[in-house]
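Lab manual, section 2.4: Encoding a predicted structure.

Procedure: take the sequence of the chain (181 residues), apply the prediction step described in section 2.3, and record the output as structure tokens. A sample record is shown.
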Amino acid sequence: MPEREGRLTRAAPPAGRGGTAGGGRRPRRDAVDNPRGYPRAVESGTALRVRRAERPLGDLRPLEAFTPKVLYAVDGAVANLDLSTDPEALAAAARAAVAVGGGHVLDETAVVFPNGAVTLVLVLAESHLSVHTWPEEHLVAVDLFSCGAIEGQAVVDELVRRLGLGQVAMRRVVRGPAPTS
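Recorded output:
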């Protein structure tokens, strides 16, 4: 396994596991050095917040359950680093893009990491949109999962435009079980 950030503390594997006669053990997850100061475990101190849709689903779009499910995975280079570390600006751009595609934002949340990176998630009536930034790499990754009558390509195009992304790579993946023959 190539080393990324930090070193793994290695110990002998227990008998019956690993590749040594004396046994071996995989390094514990919490034994990884933590040079950036990220918490080892997420302790939010809160319970899962569950919201019910306030309007009947029939009010949003008829027969959304029978529309194609599509994942749009987009990677791009952001020129404006201030934008990539501003959760409010990212959320405004994402909300506007969803509106252009005819979607409905039900909820949103963002987390800002110690390096300024942001993870933003919008819960949509038509599924979800997430935006992840890596300012040190000038990278923005967007995932739009659409299951409903949202125009996914229009959402992606508008978000790319609003974020000023260059060097854009997009993959469109149709989701669902494989067809039976």
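Check your result against the sample. Confidence is low (pLDDT under 50) at residues 1-32.
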